[in-house]
Amino acid sequence: MEALKAARGARFLAATLRELPTLRAAGIPLDLLVGSAADPGERYEGSLDARTVVLTESGAGGTANGERYAATELPGPVSDTYGAGDSFGAALAFALARGDELSRALELAARSGAAVLMGRGPYAAQLALAT
């Protein structure tokens, strides 16, 4: 918990609902909280101070601060689902931390999650950052 409190010194702090009890105990404000609306272990009732709360619903998109967002069209047939949600969350945190508006960050996150579905495991089909 001390590490989490120290992390609040960063310019941007994101967390997953998988750690809800720890986040409640720490009581620190978050810039981004991400979880799965379909996972019973990630149920969220609004108990944290989080600027942006995103709940994913797989191929149905999800909600961001209570507003619906759309999933992206899949670029091909699904090979494996492992890592898609984590890739979504990582891309969303990346985009928001670099200053993207929420709608643009959600688009990148949705494309990142969808791309991972095309390969075996979480690393075979990730998006590459254009420089």
Explain the overall architecture.
With 131 residues, the protein is an alpha/beta fold. The chain has one domain: Ribokinase (UDP-N-acetylmuramoyl-L-alanine:D-glutamate ligase). It has helices at 2-7, 20-26, 84-97, 102-116; strands at residues 14-16, 30-36, 50-56, 62-64, 67-69. Strands 1-2-3-4-5 form a five-stranded mixed sheet, covered by helices on one side. Helix 3 packs antiparallel against helix 4. The mean pLDDT is 92.
Keywords:
131 residues; alpha/beta; UDP-N-acetylmuramoyl-L-alanine:D-glutamate ligase; five-stranded mixed beta sheet; 32% helix; 18% strand
Based on the coordinates given, report the CATH architecture.
3-Layer(aba) Sandwich
CATH superfamily: Ribokinase
Quick one: how many beta strands? Answer: 5
- The rounded Rg comes to 15 Å
N-C termini distance: 36 Å
Order of helices and strands: HEHEEEEHH
The major pleated sheet works out as: 5 strands, mixed
Strand line-up of the largest beta sheet: 1-2-3-4-5
Task: Set down the secondary structure blueprint.
Elements (H helix, E strand, L loop, with lengths): L1 H6 L6 E3 L3 H7 L3 E7 L13 E7 L5 E3 L2 E3 L14 H14 L4 H15 L15
Parallel strand pairs: 1-2, 2-3
Antiparallel strand pairs: 3-4, 4-5
Helix pairs in contact: 3-4
